[in-house]
Write a structure and sequence with these properties.
Number of helices: 2
Shape: rod-shaped
Number of strands: 0
Structural class: mainly alpha
Amino acid sequence: MFEVGFSELLLCFLVALVVLGPDKLPRVASAVGRWTGAARGYLRRLHAELERETQVGEVQKQLQDAQRALREQAGSVDAAVRKAADDLKR
């Protein structure tokens, strides 16, 4: 995605220190840390859900392929049974 280097973090910290002051900065840093943790947790759950959906889609495709093959085999078996029945009638 994007990278934040040490110099950018230091600049953000200095701006926050000047704007907020030394008394409010720890509380704001704590709140930002909690928000960041919550966002990471949300993204982790979202990633896991998307992975599950992808796996479900793959399993459904495999099931449809198996059903198609089974129908084809059933059709060929049915044709063979009919042919055998016709041969017996003659």
